[in-house]
Amino acid sequence: MLELQWPLSEKAQSEIDEKKRKPSKEIRVDAMREAVEFAQRTSARGRGKVVLVFPAEDMNHITANALLKTLEEPVGDVRFVLASESAHQLLPTIRSRCIAHTMEWPSQDEARDWLVAQGLTRDVVPLALQASGGRPDDALAMASAGSALEAWPLIPKALMAGDTTVFKDWGAALQIDAAHKVCHDLMLQASGAEPRFFPKASLQGIKTDYKVLAQWSKQLANAMKTMEHPFNAGLMAEALVSQAQSVLNSGDPRKK
Known about the structure:
Elements: H1 10-17, H2 29-40, E1 49-53, H3 61-72, E2 78-82, H4 92-95, H5 108-117, H6 125-131, H7 136-145, H8 147-151, H9 155-161, H10 172-190, H11 210-225, H12 233-248
Parallel strand pairs: 1-2
Helix pairs in contact: 2-3, 6-7, 10-11, 10-12
């Protein structure tokens, strides 16, 4: 809610202002219980109700279980919309009670036109879209950051060389995300597919065994879980780049 600039309840806002609690990184069970209670009240206008749960994958198991009974037997004209970019992370019991609807990303032409309308120049749009995996909002955020987009094509070779300056002034989430995208593209390349996030020239000359890349991907996924920890940013960048350098210089054993 803070990210979307939606107003919090008076109690929640007061506790955050007074530093009695921190903004939650997951959907808490008390918030779900309030939503269920809202759904069970009679509508004052005699209309149906819709409860949006987003991002649904941020529900912990306790929260998800608190929703189960209502999904099985919704009261009156109530609909719960569970929006998620990672539906596979939802409990199977939750998924089995939902009707799935896949929403598609806009086409490249639609995304390009929208980004230009937001003030981006046409020459930076292709790289911004590639770096963000075709997501217009992320592309706009990256292009607005300026230096992040300028450094983007240099990241794979910088990691291979152990150069930490490529991540100067980058937060932990951006560093890990960039390394993960390098790993992802190298796995695609090792499988004979085209890279998704980086220009092909940025990956040229990097040959790494698929199994080594798969292990690195798991390590990066674990690092993402602890990225909110108050690590020293410089030391974290050094550790991340050192790990990447080791992986990217491991070579392809099939060529030895």
